Amino acid sequence: MPWITLIGSLRLWIRLTEIVDKEIELNVCGLEPPEPMERVLDAISLMGPGQRLRMVIDREPRPLYRILDNNGFAHETHSRSDYLYEILIWHKV
Hints:
The chain has 93 residues and is α+β, with helices and mostly antiparallel strands. The chain has 2 helices and 6 strands; from the N terminus they run βββαβαββ. The two termini are 23 Å apart.
């Protein structure tokens, strides 16, 4: 599965391998605003057709939902038992 590793506040690395299930993972837990928003927006700008982004964050990113809705993305949010939120993002068809 492709993954995104964020190093510092400026570097975004993507491992480009054969995409099996076309899902990118992004963990922004522990980052202070606006960094999680900046990183998820950078990540979705790199998404190709059919790809999905699975973001894990330690608070519900309510402002992100309107941005996604207004820019052609669909999303699902799940509250996890470890008190984290998992948001799945994909291009609307």
